Amino acid sequence: MSVSDKNIVLGTREQIYMERMAPRVMKYAGGIGIAALIAAALLGLALHDSMKQFLCSYLTAWVFFFALAVSALWFVLAHHLFKAAWSNVVRRIGEAVSNNFILLAILFIPILLGMKVIFPWTSHAFMMSGSELRHKQLFLNTPFYILRMAIYLGVLAAISIYYRRMSLLQDQDGHVSRLMRLQKHSGWCFLVVCWIMNLIGVDLVMSLQPKWLTYVEPLYFATGCAVTFFAALPVITRCFQRQGFLPMVNKEHYHDMGKWLFAFVMFWAYIGFAQYILIWYGNVPKETAFFLFRQIGPWAAISIALIIGHFLIPFLGLISRWPKRRPGTLVFWGVWVLVFQYLDFFWQIQPAVYEQSQKVQSAPVSGLDPYKLLGSADKMVWMPLHPLSLLISLLCVVGVGGVFVAHTFYLLANKSLLPLRDPRLPEALAVESI
Amino acid sequence: MSTYIPSMDAPVEEPALYGLLAEFHDPQSLMNAANVLRKAGYYRWDCYTPFPVHGLDKVMGQRPSILPVVVFTVAALGCIGMLALAWYCNAFDYPIVVSGKPYWGLGPHMFLAFPVTVLASVTTTFYATFIFCKLPIFRHPLFTSERFRRATDDGFFIAVEARDAKFDLKVTSELLNSAGALAVEEVRD
Question: Which residue of chain A comes nearest to B99, CA vs CA?
């Protein structure tokens, strides 16, 4: 122990090392996850739609857990960038959750195998059907897509592994220079992670509708990603506390987590509104294509539900001081926002996958009437809302989530839940929020 | 530790007594003294420190401010009011077609409602803080004390006002001394 932390009480060894719990969670979460993925794949086969619904659900689930990992990395980098103290008590959770990029890269293989089913730009004939698409082929082609994904996930994995390893090494040797190095590199790493969060949104969501043009969607995707971990953090911390870990996390720390969550709920609404209003004002067909399907029928209900459930209700629920300082209410809002964030990704991805087979994609730009197009003939765009499709989506979340949780606990096992020799740990334990 | 001795030969035209000023050595002793004062039932007193001392408001027994409620109410009224004004002007009283858009839409009018909400909350925060803090005050009796200047540097002070119901020159000064004050002095207006 260094000199600075001689006055603090860190609790017993059982409270900061997950020695017995982690293997159990790994076994159950991993087992349930793999079973759920197999069940989802079998259901997908039973639908006889060349696995379209399964891939679509799987992509949504993958994006949700990618968002969790990338925002955890964002949180770790922000901690170093701001030289924050309070977040030391939950930093190890962020480091463990952010170290899942290699797992996510492996889990991306099914999407690559089924690219031709869900990404319309994989078809050469489709890309030759319009002049604006012909130019986009420079960017949207299979080899470059795979290369891009490899670079994005590789860079994210490298940064997250570096930040976790340095932090764990500091536990052993106690060199402050390690922390200084992490702080020094946090600036450009933060910038790179933010770029990747934006750019990967183009590949994962926008490229499902290659004709669609917008300037805000990458940022909207990145903001949605950033919400995820700040909603999950109080939930994870509370779960650990219920199992007897991290007793030193108190309401001051929950208050700070609540502030992050509140800020990102607001920012999500701000960016979502910015995108909608730009497209509404411009009223250009290739921009409005995104909202056409999403303001008719059940998709319109989901759009409205997002405004109310992802912004208005949590805004009113989190604006006061007391809900953020009570772990119970904060966990409630964390789960609430997580559900609506999943719904947000669902709403971005799933109608887009079915839209490509619709007339809108090939219809001439003038005289486009979505109400007429959707009114009677094509019911395909409602497919994701079919009970069987919803079941596949749920199984995919459980599946990818189970594997993700198992790997996270593998990383947490036998490692301290606190950065024991961080010079700002005493400050973190004594923090007071205003 | 000095003890306070009331002066027996007070001048005839002495200024009114504002209260007692007690200096403390460090934040911890200030907190202890604040705890003693609160338990003794004093109401009109305040602490002065060179930097924010965490937990002091709790020890002093201060209730949460109603400022957030006031700000939220005015901000909500500002938002609704601006939307109502925009609707009245653009959609009801004098509708004009602008680039083929409908007269009324919640989206574009949010552009007006959002800054007005922000402006309403900011100005309400600013002026309500002034009113709740009874500002502006152009002079304060405590500034007559030479010792009090250290409140912006390294001094920790408690001032108990004479208009407090429980205030008694002798009893209060003894209480402050027993609570660990380095020095207690009278402050006159």
Answer: A281
Neighbours of A28 (CB within 10 A): 14
Q: Whose CA is closest to A412, among A16, A11, A61?
A: A16
Nearest CA-CA distance, residue A22 and chain B, Å: 37
Question: Rounded to a whole number, what is the distance in Å from the CA of A295 to chain B's nearest CA?
Answer: 14
Where does chain B have alpha helices with state H?
27-39, 56-59, 67-86, 106-132, 169-178
* Residue B110 to residue A277, Cβ atoms within 8 A: yes
- The structure tokens 């955890």 sit at A72
Tell me the chain A residues in contact with residue B67 when contact means C-beta distances shorter than 8 Å: none
The list of chain A residues with pLDDT below 50 reads 1-6, 358-368, 375-377
Nearest of A422, A414, A431, A424 to residue A1 by alpha carbon: A422
Q: A25: which residues sit within 8 A by CB, 6+ positions away?
A: A405, A406, A409
- Is the Cβ pair A280, B68 closer than 8 Å? no
> How many angstroms separate the CA atoms of A68 and A338, rounded?
10
* Mean pLDDT value across residues B162-187: 91
- Segments making up each domain of chain B, as ranges: 17-64+139-188, 67-132
Q: Is the CB of A273 less than 8 angstroms away from the CB of B110?
A: yes
Chain A hits for B54, CB-CB cut-off 8 Å, are 432
Cβ-contact B36, B174 below 8 angstroms: no
Nearest to B55 among A281, A319, A432 (CB): A432
Alpha-carbon gap, residue A90 to A428, rounded angstroms: 10
- State how far the alpha carbon of A421 is from the alpha carbons of A175, A177, A180, B38, in Å: 8, 12, 13, 40
User: What is the pLDDT at residue B124?
Assistant: 96
